[in-house]
Amino acid sequence: MPVKILISYDDTDNDRDAIALARQLAYPGAELSLAYVRHVQEPEPDREAQARRHAEKLLEQGAQLLGNPDAPRYIVFHASTGQGLLELAEREQVDVIVFGSDYRTAPGAVAPQASAQRLLHGGSVAVAIAPAGLRSRAKASIGRIRVLGEAGDDAPAVTAQTLAKALGATITEHSGGPVDLLVVGSREGAPSGRVELSAAAEYVIETALSPVLVVPRNAPVRFEA
């Protein structure tokens, strides 16, 4: 089955970075969609209708920016953005949720926002995080991929291999050189199918200068048509 990629989008600059990363991951055949989480429903019908139109317009603009005006769009009601996205992803069988970095992040750096942090500590779906300012790198693409795995888990390696094949990219073993994507595995001892980071992996993500894709333990994302 084609990979399903869901973009967390609320029209901020950093969520435009998420769209840029989703476009890089979108090999031919991948299915992209956008979601916006609302935390409360307005008690008055007129105000609720206005809020609904605002959300729909926001997602429409995101789809245009994505370059796919017909992309599926979801409005989710949940007190927690991360949990709302996770429940949507599980219901729609999404493989990857893409986030921008926290709004205070310096250009070029990666910093998971609060909603992404929720999924990085017990979520069941792979999480991709775009560095701040990725949207401004007009010609950016994924050509070099590095894998950071944990013992006894080939999920990050399989994910990287299938993505490299789908995009015509290469996997590099050099830990110090520049790369276009870092694929990170979950920690040893994490339940199968769950995302849980080791302290070492968290440090690598915090110091990364490229997009990051974190996969659940023993559950690779297979970028295949």
Protein topology:
Blueprint (H helix, E strand, L loop, with lengths): L3 E5 L4 H13 L5 E8 L6 H22 L6 E5 L3 H12 L3 E4 L14 H7 L5 E4 L14 E5 L6 H13 L2 E2 L9 E4 L14 H8 L5 E3 L11
Parallel strand pairs: 1-2, 1-4, 2-3, 4-5, 6-7, 6-8, 8-9
Antiparallel strand pairs: 5-9
Overall spatial form: globular
Oligomer: single chain
| Lateral strand order in the biggest sheet | 3-2-1-4-5-9-8-6-7
Q: Termini distance?
A: 6 Å
From the 3D structure, determine the CATH topology: Rossmann fold
Number of domains: 1
CATH class: Alpha Beta
Structural class: alpha/beta
Q: SSE string, helix = H, strand = E?
A: EHEHEHEHEEHEEHE
Classify the helix fraction into a percent range.
25-40%
Describe the fold and architecture.
- The protein is built from 6 helices and 9 strands; from the N terminus they run E-H-E-H-E-H-E-H-E-E-H-E-E-H-E.
- The protein has helices spanning 13-25, 45-66, 81-92, 114-120, 155-167, 199-206, and strands at 4-8, 31-38, 73-77, 96-99, 126-129, 144-148, 170-171, 181-184, 212-214.
- A 9-stranded mixed β-sheet has the order 3-2-1-4-5-9-8-6-7, with helices on both faces.
- Strand 1, helix 1 (13-25) and strand 2 (31-38) form a beta-alpha-beta unit.
- Helix 3 packs across helix 4 (114-120).
Essential attributes:
225 residues, alpha/beta, Rossmann fold, 9-stranded mixed sheet, 33% helix, globular
In short:
The protein is α/β, with parallel strands linked by helices. 33% of the residues lie in helices and 18% in strands.
